[in-house]
Amino acid sequence: MTAPLHEPTADAAPSAAEEASLAEAGGAQAVQGRSLGRIAWERLKRDKLALTGGIVVLVLIVIAILAPAIAHLVGQDPETHHENLIDPLFSTPKGSLGGISGDHLFGVEPVSGRDVFARIVYGSRVSLLVGFLSAVVAVIIGTVLGILAGFFGGWVDAAISRVMDGLLAFPQLLFIIALVSVMPNEMLGLTGTDVRLFVMILVIGFFGWPYIGRVVRGQTLSLREREYVEAARSLGAGRLYILFKELLPNLVAPIIVYTTMMIPTNILTEAALSFLGVGVKPPTASWGQMLSSAIDYYDSDPMYMVIPGVAIFITVLAFNLFGDGVRDALDPKGSR
Amino acid sequence: MNQKSTGTQGAAAGDVLLKVNGLQKHFPIRKGMLQRQVGAVKAVDGIDFEVRSGETLGVVGESGCGKSTMGRLITRLLEPTAGTVEFEGRDITHLGVSGMRPMRRDVQMIFQDPYSSLNPRHTIGTIVGAPFRLQGVTPEGGIKKEVQRLLEVVGLNPEHYNRYPHEFSGGQRQRIGIARALALSPKLVIADEPVSALDVSIQAQVVNLLDDLQDELGLTYVIIAHDLSVVRHVSDRIAVMYLGKIVELADRSSLYRAPMHPYTKALLSAVPIPDPRRRSAKSERILLKGDVPSPIAPPSGCRFHTRCWKATRICTTQEPPLIELKPGQRVACHHPENAEDQAPQDTQLLSAAREAIELVPVGRDEAPAGQGAAAAEPATGSEGAAAEGTASGE
């Protein structure tokens, strides 16, 4: 370059030298940057509603994991019958409010007299297990296929997108009902309830992946045109490097958001399936199944219907509040 | 820094570093069920030039004229449709990802948008260190130390190693992009609109940083820009592009003093003069009418004939070759300005040519437009005034 022009450089150069000398004076203490994840966490911490939801979710997870211990603590288990507490004439629990007492915190079931508290605690295991694992299945399939569709485009994209459209148009509840009812009682070394759980997780996950797949595909389509992808290519990066080092870190936020939003939906689907009698089989406890059997007693023993209903309501609400908070925290340009 | 400059001095200044021959890039347009190709966007349509070691080639042109595509073809981010790109005598036109990898050390790119050229999820250390990791190079003293040295070279605090891009301003981000491009001590740096996304005050800083780095490291630049003041300030030679073709390629002083292609002349007449006293030296502004024609179906013959005020019959039928009309000045035009007419027999102006332009007298209401040029103008001031005088005197 021929034309020398040093006025503006004069500003820049001393400041660089100054900073360098400052750096020397500062010694080893490095300036720690705040990552986007950390900023999101700090934002989430300020969102009281989301935090409450998150705490409830944590409590639920702890309850599910420690279900036997908790039931043991109150001296009950979900499968012992207490026929002595049942009114033989109406087969409803003796006493008011479905037999709530010091021994049976949430009362007992009609007919069998099983402890409702223990069954609710054990039921959380089924709900959370199906909710989480089917979300995991959906996220894995959805992320992999979504990235492939978005990154490679062309016929790969066309094929995957048409499959997603097809699945989204499928009457999934009917399909699951049909599938679960023809399931064998034993499969892959699993028996009874475990087979039902396994199939439910796979099927709910399988019908859930297009929702995540579409989001991931769209994000990938927009991210792959960014200049930092070109920058990586101009440095000699291959496709795998670009996929895993440049694109995936930017996809984590939407994937987390959609996972937290998907879990409550899956919990509701599981409850619906159990309610319809194609979920887990009795005597294994499940909230949907309890609701289903409470229908016959809704006027004589309303508490038996209210309790599992409230359990489902609280769980889904907590997940949704938490999910909303996570979305707001990760996407500052969003609604708020 | 010293070991770097000696490293790049290997090729003696003046040797041809990059040679481009008949380079083309046509983006296919596909339609229908079978994705049949129904046409092509001729973004770059046969260009030839060479870049000598140590010089700065400026590339100017309107938006959509193919200058960014050309930059991406040279760095092989896009696959050329035809033509060849030779770097240090080696044909790199069709090398694959792995074949290109060693070449990538020598050819680097600075990107236009500092907000999208840095991955928001990576720290500055990771971004500037990526070239070493990708190329499997371990610099002396480790990657971290080298990255911090590079940050210092571009005028950033090396302690910001662990920070994320969103914590920096646009100008600082562009410096980070420059540090990344310099990491492997390249020989050739392609800068695609390196300052157009920045504030004018920051533009000058970044342009001068590039200037200083060239002196220190012996770099060769191809700088793509649409701001004529920036190009004038940084370039040794300038290529003017119109619709995927180079219409004029000349030394900076020749081009600004006596532009030969009518398009160049029109472009230069649009540069505002910040000094009102000097404004009278400039006679008038040439306003081109209409839009740039579509690169899908470029005009026959000379591509500029639809907007040229000197266009004649030959311009619609014969494509003018890019020939050297004066030492160091190559022009593709049948009826150049400031030079002998290449088709004197053809004098009948096209009817369209008579309305192709509007001449606007200069000297009123131009003050606000002056700021774009303000940054670069002072250095070239006196020379600029002389150049303008000559240009209008013809």
TrEMBL record, chain A:
Location of this chain's protein in the cell: Cell membrane
**Classification via Pfam families:** BPD_transp_1, OppC_N
A Gene Ontology biological process annotation? transmembrane transport
Cite the residue spans of the region called Disordered: 1-26
How does this protein sit in the membrane? Multi-pass membrane protein
Instruction: Report the superkingdom from the record.
Output: Bacteria
List the keywords (alphabetical).
Answer: Cell membrane, Membrane, Transmembrane, Transmembrane helix, Transport
- Bias kind Low complexity: ranges: 10-26
Transmembrane region(s): 49-71, 126-151, 163-183, 195-216, 247-267, 303-323
CDD domains in the cross-refs: TM_PBP2 (cd06261)
Instruction: Tell me which residues make up the ABC transmembrane type-1 domain.
Output: 124-323
> Any one cellular component term from GO for this entry?
plasma membrane
Q: Which InterPro entries match?
A: BP-dependent_transpt_permease, MetI-like, MetI-like_sf, OppC_N
The record's annotation in Gene3D superfamilies points to: MetI-like
Q: Which family does it belong to?
A: Belongs to the binding-protein-dependent transport system permease family.
The protein's name in its UniProt record = Peptide ABC transporter permease
Q: Which organism is it from?
A: Streptomyces sulfonofaciens
UniProtKB/TrEMBL annotation, chain B:
The UniProt similarity line reads: Belongs to the ABC transporter superfamily.
What organism does the record attribute this protein to? Streptomyces sulfonofaciens
Gene3D superfamilies on file: P-loop containing nucleotide triphosphate hydrolases (3.40.50.300)
Keywords, alphabetical: ATP-binding, Nucleotide-binding, Transport
Question: One GO molecular-function annotation for this sequence?
Answer: ATP binding
- Sorted alphabetically, which Pfam families does this protein's record hold? ABC_tran, oligo_HPY
Its protein name is ABC transporter domain-containing protein
Q: Where is this region: Disordered?
A: 363-394
Give me the stretches of Low complexity compositional bias.
368-394
Q: Please give the SMART domains that the UniProt record associates with this protein.
A: AAA (SM00382)
